[in-house]
Each structure stands twice: as C-alpha cells, then as structure tokens.
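Progress narrative, work stream C.
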Amino acid sequence: MSCYFLESTAFIKLFVREPGTDALIRLMEAVEDNRKLISSSTPLEVYAAIRRRERAGAISAENAAAALDILRLEAARMVQEPLNPAVLEAARQLIDRSALRWPDTLQLAAAIAARDMFQGTEIIFVSSSSQLLDAARTEGFQTLNPANEA
C-alpha cells in the first residue's frame, strides 16, 4: 500500500488552479485520508502562498477566502509529520549534502521521517519542484509531479 507525501508546491494545487490540479484532485479522491501525508509546516506555506497571490491580484479576495477555508479542512484530514528534532536533524543533513533551500529540506526531511515511521510502506513524494523531485529520488523515493500527469 502506497502513501503520498504532498510537498507544498503540490498541496497548493488542491486550492489554487494550476497545471496538475485536476490530476492531483483525481489522485486525492482515489486515496484514503490515512495515506495522505504532509509536513506540519505545509498548511502555513500554502496559506502564505494564497495570501501572496491575493495581494498580487492573481486571485480575488473571495477566491482566497474560499481557498483558505478548504485548506483548513483538507489539512486537518491529512496525516501531518511534525517538525520534531529528528526532522530538523534530517533537514540539516540534507543541507550538507544538497543544494536545496532550507524550507525544501524541511519538506523532504519530513518525508524521510514519515518513511522511517511507516516502514514497509512505500512513500511517494509528490511535488512540482524539479529540484526537490531530483533530491527526493536521490533519497530513494518514488516521485510524482502532478503537472506531468494527464
């Protein structure tokens, strides 16, 4: 049984229409909630991204409010990996061996911690960041970019 770890560039597609939104929605509708994983920092990252788009005029205040309401509901349904000392240490190690930005290391480190916790379960790392997908593959993850799915 596979679990899907949604990094913030993928998770936001559930709330703001982007390339890959339809593919990610179909995937999430087909997967049980207890097999959907995110970092505990992901809802805050997505919240900030929605507000940035609203301030830039890319989405209306009404659409931003609706997206934030759905974000709260969906985030509560996901299994959230906390930013505990093990995740922070894994992120530090990723900084030492990769060119990832520190927020991206927190995302990948949370996925690594989830994989360690759910041993024997395949964790598929879902992102729209090519650099983060490459790093995840280096760490032994199967990956999925919803923007590349039909």
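Work stream C, second folded protein:
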Amino acid sequence: MAKRYAVYKGLQRPLIFKGFKGKFIYWGVGALLLGLVAGSIIMALVNMYVGAIALIGLIVGGLFYTAGKQKGGLHDKTQAKGIYIHQTGLTNLKSYGTEERI
C-alpha cells in the first residue's frame, strides 16, 4: 500500500529572505551588486577610502530604498484618478479587403 504524505500548501505566499519579500529580494541583490561594482570602480579610479565610503553608502542606501518601497506593498501600483477615453481604430475595418489584389 502506498504511503500518503501531506502536501505543503504554503507555496501561495511570497518568498521571504532576511525580511525582503518576493520581487524585493532581487532588488536587494541588485543594490548589493551595484554597490560592489560602483565601489570597486571608484576605488580603482579615485581613492581606496573614497571608494569604500561610496561602496558602503550605495549598499546601505539601496537596501533602505528597497525596504521603503516594500512597505508600499508587493503589488504597489499608481492609482490614476480621472476618466480616460481610448480611441479605437475599428472604423478602418470597413475598407479592409476592398482593394483589388493582383
């Protein structure tokens, strides 16, 4: 007789890592990589200490920005207020196919 196992039902929730949820995990990784690359370039071109300060500032700033955007919600969208009328191009369908083809 086959054994039955309980199915894990928690897959409908967003992935959480170190306090970042869903897409903001990728934003945090992007902030880390951007800080490392920009800091290393500044270290090579300007000065080691200036580059280290820029590296720390970019990483911390990027993570704070990501955490701030995450508070808006995982599906944060701008809510446009007003009535918008979209023109349709259906009036040109009457002439479609009336040309003679060679």
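Residues 93 and 99 are 12 Å apart (CA to CA). No further action is required on this item.
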